[in-house]
TrEMBL record:
Keywords: Amino-acid biosynthesis, Aromatic amino acid biosynthesis, NADP, Oxidoreductase
Enzyme class: oxidoreductase
Cited CDD domains: NAD_bind_Shikimate_DH (cd01065)
One Pfam family, short name: SDH_C
Gene Ontology, cellular component aspect: cytosol
Pathway: Metabolic intermediate biosynthesis; chorismate biosynthesis; chorismate from D-erythrose 4-phosphate and phosphoenolpyruvate: step 4/7
Catalytic machinery residues: K64 (proton acceptor)
Organism this protein belongs to: Arcobacter defluvii
Enzyme Commission identifier(s): 1.1.1.25
Gene: aroE
Start and end residues of each SDH C-terminal domain: 229-259
Name the record gives this protein: Shikimate dehydrogenase (NADP(+))
Record-listed NADP(+) binding positions: C207, G229
Length: 267
């Protein structure tokens, strides 16, 4: 029987996950279909998942925390992050994972060895990235516009600051995990604060994908090697795909999924 997979989000219309996942399924001849579901109430995510006979799901904004709360079993680093982006149905139970965190680590592999990271932003993505880095033994400092969201990081012994009380150090990688630059032309922190940091850094990564954000443009002006969030989206998707299909995705499958993500033909 054809297996059904889905992405839940609000909004979800813009999501590139279906074209990426369907490209992977097609490439390995898996009898499955991956669709979009505009979910308004995250509290009912598990019921909707079960009622529609989905075998697996991805979860995007704003439902990752609801998905965590509703899962029967939470695996791995997601237990600490308290937000999940992947569900699979296993022996009648909804098992949940966070693949954003390992997806991010995979995406920064191309920079080589990184030791000290400045992470801009303190939202759900920053939680996943900071714990992934910490688990890898990479030093991470969080810098956010406001104090409000810093408690999580303090509770995990991750140095975290708002713009007002921040004293910069030297970092080899600066990551933008804020939504500044997504739909506007803002930098994620004031230019006078950011520019000297980027001057001393080697690499800059933006979780936003498909464009050179003002952050990446400033990093490039200051001679950083830059990278947008496409690989993060790809690799979180590849890891979810492996859970969905119970197969290991080799480089050919990964490239098929990248083509799918970019809207290119795969076969
Ligand atoms: P959240 O809404 O949870 O967090 C947003 C963060 O951005 C907050 O810390 C907020 O600060 C900060 N922020 C928002 N606007 C500004 C601004 N103008 N200047 C400075 N700081 C700002 O978002 P998420 O963590 O879920 O997502 C963050 C970004 O990461 C989004 O752009 C999203 O598209 C991208 N993303 C990419 C992925 C990928 O695979 N490539 C995966 C997941 C996310 P404050 O606390 O002060 O409000």
């Amino acid at each position: 029987m054809t297996k059904k997979f889905v992405i839940f989000g609000n909004p979800v219309e813009h999501s590139k996950s279906p074209q990426m996942q369907n490209a992977g399924l097609k490439y390995i001849n898996f009898d499955g279909i991956y669709e979009k579901h505009h979910l308004i109430d995250g509290n009912i995510i598990k019921n909707i998942f079960l009622e529609n006979n989905y075998s697996g799901a991805n979860i995007t904004v704003p439902h990752k925390e609801f998905a965590y709360e509703n899962a029967d079993i939470v695996e791995g680093i997601a237990k600490e992050i308290k937000a999940v982006n992947t569900y699979i149905l296993k022996d009648g139970k909804v098992v949940a994972y966070n693949t954003d965190a390992p997806g991010f680590l995979k995406a920064i592999e191309s920079f080589g060895k990184v030791k000290n990271v400045l992470l801009l932003g303190a939202g759900g993505t920053a939680k996943a990235i900071s714990l992934a880095l910490k688990e890898k033994g990479i030093r991470v400092t969080v810098l956010n516009r406001s104090e409000g969201k810093l408690e999580f990081f303090k509770n995990h012994n991750i140095p975290s600051f708002s713009w007002e009380n921040f004293k910069p150090d030297i970092y080899d990688l600066v990551v933008n995990s804020t939504s500044a630059g997504l739909k506007d032309d803002y930098l994620p922190a004031p230019k006078e604060l950011l520019e000297p940091i980027l001057k001393n850094a080697s690499f800059a990564f933006d979780c936003v994908y498909g464009k050179i954000t003002p952050f990446l443009a400033l990093a490039r002006e200051n001679n950083c090697e830059i990278k947008d969030g496409e690989d993060m989206l790809l690799h979180q998707g590849v890891l979810a795909f492996e859970y969905f299909t119970n197969t290991k995705a080799d480089n050919k499958v990964i490239e098929a999924m990248r083509k799918g993500l970019r809207g290119e033909k795969i076969l």
